[in-house]
Amino acid sequence: MNDANVNPLPPMPLTMALVGQRVTFAGVRNAGRGLTHRLAEMGLTPGENLEILNRGSGPFIVSIKGSRFVLGRGMVHRILVRPG
Q1: Tally of domains in the chain
Q2: pLDDT at 2
Q3: What angle do CA 10, 16, 22 make, to 5 degrees?
Q4: Residue 18: CATH number of its domain
Q5: Residue-wise burial string across 59-73, b where 16 or more C-beta atoms lie within 10 A, e elsewhere
Q6: Closest CA to 12 of 31, 29, 37, 34
Q7: Distance CA 19, CA 77 (A)
Q8: Cross-strand pairs, 80
Q9: pTM, rounded to two decimals
Q10: Domain span at residue 52?
Q11: 25 with 48: CB under 8 angstroms?
């Protein structure tokens, strides 16, 4: 079977990713242009990799291209990612 014909895993909300996990940004759901633009300014564009640094009861922190970002809980629920 050719790997190009295999469907990738469906995207999941960023809230489901674990600390230390590397994920690939797949898009946003239920978001307006403002959020989409803000994420792009931070370097979050489709296909970009990020790592989860903290996701507990405190702030949700991710690393994107070597920079750390704190994401609001409302934002995190709208961000879709794929493992890997």
Answers
A1: 1
A2: 53
A3: 80
A4: 2.30.30.90
A5: ebbbebeeeebebee
A6: 29
A7: 16
A8: 13, 27
A9: 0.83
A10: 3-83
A11: yes
Given this model, what pLDDT does residue 73 score?
86
Q: Residue 68 carries which DSSP code? A: E
Split the chain (84 residues) into runs of 10 and give each run's mean pLDDT. 60 94 93 86 91 89 94 90 91
Question: For residues 50 and 22, is the Cβ–Cβ distance under 8 A?
Answer: yes
Confidence (pLDDT) at 13: 94
Cross-strand bridge partners of residue 2: none
Which residue in 51, 61, 46, 65 sits closest to 23, CA to CA?
Answer: 51
Going by the DSSP 8-state scheme, the letter that residue 56 receives in this structure is S
Strand (E) or helix (H) holding 77: helix 73-78
36 backbone dihedrals φ, ψ, rounded to 5°: -60, -45
Give counts: helices (H), strands (E), the chain: 2, 6
How far is it, in rounded angstroms, from Cα 3 to Cα 38?
A: 34
